[in-house]
Each structure stands twice: as C-alpha cells, then as structure tokens.
Amino acid sequence: MMGPVDLTSGKTMMANGPDALHLYVAEKFEAAMDRKIPQMEVRYHNLSVTANVAVTGEITAKSELPTVFNTIKRSLAKFAWNKRVVHKEIIKNASGVFKPGTITLLLGQPGSGKTSLMRVLAGQFPKSGNVKIEGNVTYNGVPRDEIGKVLPQYSAYVTQFDKHFPTLTVQETLEFAYAVCGGGMSKHTEEMLSHGAPEQNAEALETARKYFENFPDLVIEQLGLQICRDTIIGSNMLRGVSGGERKRVTTGEMEFGMKYMTLMDEISTGLDSAATFDIITTQRSIAKNLHKTIVIALLQPAPEVFDLFDDVMVLNHGEIIYHGPRDQAVPYFETLGFKCPPRRDAADFLLDLGTKMQLKYQVGLPPGMSRHPRLANEFSEHWRQSPLYDKLVRDIEAPCDPNLLKDVEEHMDRMPEFRQGFWESTKAVTKRQWKLTSRNKSFIKSRALMTVAMGLIYGSVFYQTDPTDVQMIIGVLFQAAMFMSLGQTAQVPTIDAAREVFYKQRSANFYRAASFAIANSLALIPQAIAEALIFWFIGVLDDWPCPSCRTFHHLLDIPGPNQPRVCVVVLLLDCYLSKFQCR
C-alpha cells in the first residue's frame, strides 16, 4: 500500500518520482472500480501496406531544393506522359502483439516503415486510391474498421514533426490540448469510480478530481518544461523555445485524455540522453502502474534507455526481423551467426543488421546454415522459423482475455468521437484563434495602414460621385472588394502553417473541422468590420448629418444602389472572402 501523495500541483505530485505517483493513483482507482484500470491489447496479423507511386524522372538532391522552378516542375510532372508507376511495399506481411502493461522499443533505419506501422495502428494512416492496407488489426478483439472514427480516443500518436502555433506559449498549447481532450473529470470517470466501498469511492473521486485538475501542470513537470512554460513556442522565423523543448511540447500535447495506448515516433530528436531517460522512465511507470500499452520508436537510444524497455521490435525495409523480449534480442541473432562486440551498444548492433555494416559482426556459421542472412527478407524468413515467432503466433491466435472484452463493453463502446460537444469545442478553438490573430501584430499594423491609405485614395477618386451613376457605383464596389479580398493573400503563410497543425489535431479527434472553420471566420470578423468602417468614414458617404446615424440607417435599409450601401456589401464580401481565401 503506497503512502499518500500530495496532488495539489505537478511539482508535489512528482516529488517522489513517477512510480510513487502512478502506483498511488492506480491503487485508489482500482479499489473504487473493483477491477483493474481499462486496458488495450493490439494484435495485427499479416499486415501489409502498399502504394503505387508515380515516378517521372531521376530524383537528385538538386531537384529536391525548394525553389520556384522545382515547385513548378513537380506540379507539371503530374501531367507528364512518360511517368511510370512503381509498386512500393511499405509494410510486408507483419504480425505481432502489443500487450497492456508493456513498453516496446521500435528500432529501424530511416525508411524502414516505423512511422507507417505506427500510423496504421493509431488509425491515422492517410487513405487514398493508390494506397492499400491488407491484413487484420484488432483492439481488444474489435476489428480496426469497426472503431476507426473513435480510435484516436483510445490511442495517442506522437508524430516526429513539431507542428505548433509559434505565437502560443508552452502553457497555452498544453492547456488547449487539455481542454479539448476532456479537461477535468468526466461523468464516465465518476461512474467508473463508484463500485467500491463508500470510503474508497470518496477517496478515489477526490484523487481523480485533483489529478485531472492539475494534469497540465503534471505534464509540464514530467517533461521538464517548467522554465519555459510562459515562453512562446516560436518557429524558424520567430525566436521561442529550443528544439528539444519544442519536441517535448509535441510529446506532452498528446498526453491528455484517458488513452489506453500511446505510440511515439522519434521523440528523442534534439534531446540529450538525460532528458530522454527521464521521459522514457515516466512512460515505463505509466505502462507498469496504469497498465497502458506503449510503443516508442527511437533512433540509436543510449544503453541505459534501451534497458528500460520490455520488448524490442526491429524493422528493416518493411520486414519484421525480430519482435520479442529485449534481453533475448542479442542472443537470438547470435544463433544466426552475429556476435555483438563487448563495447558495442545493443541498439546500434541491432540497427546495423541487414546493412553493409553487419559484416563486422559475422562469426562462424551455425549448424544447418550455408551463409549468413544479408537481406531483410532473409532475416524475416529466419525470424518466422524461430520458437519466439511461434510463441507470438500463439498469442495472436489465442482467445481475447475476458477482462479486455469487458473493457470494450463498458468503456470503448461508450466512447464518443469527440470529447467536447460541438459548441463547446467551437468556443475553445475560437478563443485560441482570437489569441493568434491578436498576436499577429505586424499583419494588423500593416493591414490597418494599407486600408487607411487605400480608403483615402478611393475616397478622393470617387469624391461626390453621383449616386445614380450605376457604372461608377459598380467601379467602387469592384475596387473595394478587390482590394479587401486580395489583401487576404498576406495570410497565406499563416494559413499554411495552421493547416499542418489542423491536420495533426483533427487526426487526434481534438475537434471537428467545422469548429475550426467557424473559429477562423469569427476571428476575422472584427478586422473585416474595422476595414469596412474605415472605408465608410473616409469619404464613400452621403451628406447625412452624422456618421453613426448614416451607419445605422444603411444597415437597416440595404435596397438601392448608393455608396454607403456598397460599403455594407463590401463588408459582407470581405467576411466571406476572408474565410475562403487561399483555403
């Protein structure tokens, strides 16, 4: 029985280390639930991912440079007659099991298929006509196709790319993720914690309330982001946090929500060994005490980090050449005639197999082998003939644990596609979008100056125009609408960066696409109103007694072509074009 843990802040929760915290929370929760915390077992059998890729010519380093010529050339290449289609095998006939309560290391050279495998298991692999996914994937016995829309609510996928809004702080980024992933304790959690004795239920509810209330602070503490919590994330053009801190924000963003499985892709890029060790130690504690299924892809982990994992999977050119206990990986390859030198890291040794670097590890041939395996398919063939693979197949074909089936019935089947309702999530996204818009000060200032200047020009050119001159009125409308709509092109870089963040967060079921679109429109309305009013008051007016009376009158009396009414139309057009320009 664990002693009490102070849950008033992230710092006090982590005072005795992650194991003490997670064990304490697990004991309180499981006592009130009268069973273990919900778990997820992932099985995949004969999983293959293939794609038909169009090749139009030889790819060189020079042709991949982001120049205007290369961009135009790649765009036109889509319509080339001499292009040929290449059948690319990304994942080849993979089979395996990820069990709850375990932490698995996924090793492989760049291009080996690590990211594709993790995205398929997370339900975030892009689907298109030229991509084909075959094989069976189940989650607690439920096929992937049956829970595809709600799968992101059970599994978190941490991408290897750091896509964030640069003007938001670390705290704001994590608090937004916390809000859209459910925020505090849900009603479903309250129902879960009501099956024990009254005292146990009360203690568990109080523990859950404090735990979820301070969860953003806990994530910041676990990832070592305390010193930069109020620093903007930044980008290549805006100074903010360091690359390693940005990588940790990417990891922390997907820590929210009651996820049963976590898939992390290259989370150690830009981190030192100590930071990586602390993060993996925390993830190991979560797996062991909260019974989560955790899979982490790393490139060349340090020996002390490698030793934290239970299982290891080695991928090479889309082929699984090993998937089993970590401490049996090196002995297994010794049976194939490969010896790891005493001063060579086990992870580096495993990564070198299947490449030209394996020659220095080759020793005498084992009995029954004519030569050492060299290609990925040869290693995979030996793996399928091993006793470890036979055990893996038995685990895949075994009946699903009744407790896991109960988790499906009581928890997974009741999970909504989004944690928040439509209007609640729209409010959260709108609040964030207004904050982003208000912090883009350079755009606001330049846009205001340009609007005033153009308004003065239009006001002087069309000064005292005859309101019955239809051709002149159409000219006013055209010029004003053209200026306001084309002025939105300055937002292209911002919208392009926001699109990448939207794709990531929508794939994780943070919010609906409609919420994002509405939020972007609402955030631009104040700017559109201000620009229209500047045009209104600068000179495109009738001889009415006062500007406010003229404004109110023409807002109520739209029919009939004269200049104030033109400004109302311009206002509506600007709102419309601000939403759809460059989308």
TrEMBL record:
<keyword id="KW-0812">Transmembrane</keyword>
<keyword id="KW-0813">Transport</keyword>
<dbReference type="GO" id="GO:0016020">
    <property type="term" value="C:membrane"/>
</dbReference>
<keyword id="KW-1133">Transmembrane helix</keyword>
<protein>
    <recommendedName>
        <fullName>ABC transporter domain-containing protein</fullName>
    </recommendedName>
</protein>
<dbReference type="GO" id="GO:0140359">
    <property type="term" value="F:ABC-type transporter activity"/>
</dbReference>
<dbReference type="InterPro" id="IPR013525">
    <property type="entry name" value="ABC2_TM"/>
</dbReference>
<dbReference type="InterPro" id="IPR003439">
    <property type="entry name" value="ABC_transporter-like_ATP-bd"/>
</dbReference>
<dbReference type="InterPro" id="IPR043926">
    <property type="entry name" value="ABCG_dom"/>
</dbReference>
<dbReference type="GO" id="GO:0005524">
    <property type="term" value="F:ATP binding"/>
</dbReference>
<keyword id="KW-0472">Membrane</keyword>
<dbReference type="InterPro" id="IPR003593">
    <property type="entry name" value="AAA+_ATPase"/>
</dbReference>
<keyword id="KW-0067">ATP-binding</keyword>
<dbReference type="InterPro" id="IPR027417">
    <property type="entry name" value="P-loop_NTPase"/>
</dbReference>
<dbReference type="Pfam" id="PF01061">
    <property type="entry name" value="ABC2_membrane"/>
</dbReference>
<dbReference type="GO" id="GO:0016887">
    <property type="term" value="F:ATP hydrolysis activity"/>
</dbReference>
<dbReference type="Pfam" id="PF19055">
    <property type="entry name" value="ABC2_membrane_7"/>
</dbReference>
<dbReference type="Pfam" id="PF00005">
    <property type="entry name" value="ABC_tran"/>
</dbReference>
<keyword id="KW-0547">Nucleotide-binding</keyword>
<feature type="domain" description="ABC transporter">
    <location>
        <begin position="72"/>
        <end position="342"/>
    </location>
</feature>
